[in-house]
Amino acid sequence: MQSHINSLPAERIARAAALIRGGLTTEVETRPCSGTGAVEIDAALPWGGLPRGLHEIAMSAADAAGAGFVAALIGRRPSRGPILWCRPRRVALDAGDPYGPGIAELGIEPARLIMVEAAKPADLLWAMEEGARTKGLAAVVAEGVTPDLTAGRRLQLAAEAGDGLILLLQSGRQIVPSSALTRWFVASIPSLPEAGGPGRPCWKLELWRCRGGGRPQDWMVEWDDAALSLSVVTQMADRPLAATG
Amino acid sequence: MVLTGSGQGGIRLTAVDGAAARLGLSAGMPLADARALVPGLNVADAAPQDDAKALAALADWCTRYGPWCAVDGADGIRLDITGCAHLFGGEAAMLRDMERRLRGFGFAARGAVADTPAAAWGWARYRGRNRPPVLETGQTDLLLSLPVAALRLDVASLDTLAVLGLASVGAVAALPRGPLSQRLGEAVLERLDRLFGRLAEPITPRPVAEPLISRMIFPEAIGRWEDIDAAAHRLVGHLCAGMSLKGQGARRLELGFYRVDGGVQHIAIGTSSPTHSPDHILRLFAERLGTVAPGFGIEAMVLRASETEPLLSRQSAFSSAGQADPAALAALIDRLQNRLGSHRVVQLIPIESHMPERAERQKPASVEDSSPRKHRKSASLSMAEAFYKQGRSARPLSLLPIPEPIEAIAPVPDDPPLTFRWRRNLHRVAFADGPERIGPEWWLPGQQGRARDYYRVEDAAGRRFWLYREGLYGAVEPPRWFLHGFFP
User: Fold this and answer.
1) Tell me: the pLDDT tens digits for B272-290?
2) Are residue B191 and residue B92 in the same domain, yes or no?
3) Nearest CA to CA, how far is A169 from chain B (Å)?
4) Which of A164, B62, B115, B309 would give a disulfide with A132, using CB separation of 3.0 to 4.6 Å?
């Protein structure tokens, strides 16, 4: 208690001021924390990749593209630390539990996953904040929770204190006010079939919101499940459909 | 009543009670012979490990007579009562008291007091029926009259002595030492020397399990939160200092609050790995201290480490950059588990099973299991890699806990469906991959069922699902379709 009061003057006032200014300021940091792996997308982001902090990834129901994008982002990180995956039980019943063998195929050791289940949103937010504050975690992923502006701001500060990436998976296209640094919408798109079966996963990535100057745009990307990398495919129409043969 | 265990040439008796001994049974006899002698024999399996545990507990109890107690063999306890006997009214009185109490517990015990541990061992077991239990100093003739079995030699040596016609300790002791050791080995001489006190036989006392506890009694009852917090700080600091001296770390701690009105409240915390860091423990308690109701005041606080483990030396200095600090990670897991419950903070453990829903299990998270380096070797990755390399069908990114039935239209048997309806939405299948047949694990109980044909399908919108058909077309029971997982 004492030490907090002693360290109050300049530092805490500055921090409080930053909190109050909230969304108005663009005091985002410059260095990226995690690249997406696709040059075109990284170039469109003011940080040259995703910075530490809160990122929202929206998706439509029963579409695992969002989870795939999250796994792709985490797989790109140099950190091999654990991943804290927080969700309420109803999400597991609705959209399934992360499945170890499938996660391993995306290049992430299943043992790195720490699953947290909490019924109350307050507990989930608390777990996320604790995780974000802990150094060495590769990412904090949350599903089925919508932090309000204050909670979002707290998460952002926690992520800056640790060196974490908080990835918030949300379903639906509705836009809620939030303090996230970026907001994406990810949807599956038809893939290029290989030998009659489904081909590599293809997603449409829509960058809806990007604090610090990025303008909304979208890309079609293909996930290479052998090289574990994302690549932008420019025009779907030009692709050699003959391969379906 | 006899106890049996598997021995040479089948099941043999390992112990007999008094009634059985009177009927002519003895330990070492084959069970079949014993049954022939006594048809209505009461037989039970011997449990040597439980016996050892009970004996150890009894040895702990014996420390009430003196601090130097040790388990002696599989059926004895020895005590060094030097300087203790007078507290119980002399050696004989002490032994009577001990035997009376042991009988009260339901044990049949034979005790003896002698000058050396070896002599006491022999005297307790092989003295004549009407001899006194206490062997006074100088009664060497009594010792010499004991049978050779009192020397505590192995069976082979005893047989040799019997062949030589040596029946008593005195007969052996009278032989010249040189030829004796040549014939029977050094062990006999050593035993003789121990018996007569020429060779010391120290007792290794049982380690006393000292509970890790720290307590604080307040001269005046406290009730303010700051005071409770400060007291908790001091208790934790004191206990942690004690634990680090012993190289122990706590896995479970209980903090008890004793109120002036006689009420007691306990708060307990658990940790995922042994710790003696005061900061870590205090942070875990800090979340629970709010639930303490001081009432009219707390007059004492007791902190007890109810579960401890030896603290392994950490190699944090070698952990590479970008990897989680184990201490910070342990602190995180502990805080999450203490607030949410350990079953809500879990890790996925791979299991070798063909059934997708059985191929992994959830287990409360711990630091040891989340270091990727260790798991590189373990089954998790190698199994998934094996799937991949063999060109086996991919596994979904997420799996529904319970497969959901779908309405599927498949015009051709053994073909993926053209359309299916799941959660009231119709999906048109654009591409499909499969089937991958997964049979039930019929060798496991409760795993009878029908084979499943799994298909990876992509609908017109590009969403990918993992479907399966249970059963075959044309069978008595029509096949049913299920949705089991999602691919990215």
Assistant:
1) 778 888 888 998 898 888 8
2) yes
3) 14
4) A164
For the stretch A37-69, pLDDT in tens is: 788 888 888 888 888 889 999 988 888 899 999
Q: Which residues of B touch A135 (CB under 8 A)?
A: 324-325, 328
Topology given in CATH for the domain delimited by A31-244: Rossmann fold (3.40.50)
Q: What is the pLDDT of residues B211-228, one digit of tens each?
A: 688 888 898 989 888 899
For residue A67, which residues of chain B lie inside 8 Å, CB to CB?
397-398, 486, 488
Give the closest of B340, B372, B399 to A99, CB-based.
Answer: B399
In a domain, B325, yes or no: no
| Number of domains chain B is built from | 5
Which 389-448 residues of chain B touch chain A by CB within 8 A? 394-402, 422-423, 425, 430-434
Q: Using CA of residue B22, residue B28, residue B33, residue B34, what is the dihedral sign?
A: positive
Do B303 and B236 share a structural domain?
Answer: yes
B473 contact A CB<8A: no
State whether A110 and B433 contact (CB < 8 Å): no
Q: Which of B195, B230, B255 is the last residue of a domain?
A: B195
- Kindly provide the ipTM of the predicted complex, given to two decimals: 0.82
- A21 to chain B, closest Cα gap in Å: 30
Q: Cβ of B322 under 8 Å from any chain A Cβ?
A: yes
The alpha-carbon gap from B340 to the nearest alpha carbon of chain A, in Å, equals 7
Q: Where are the domains of chain A?
A: 31-244
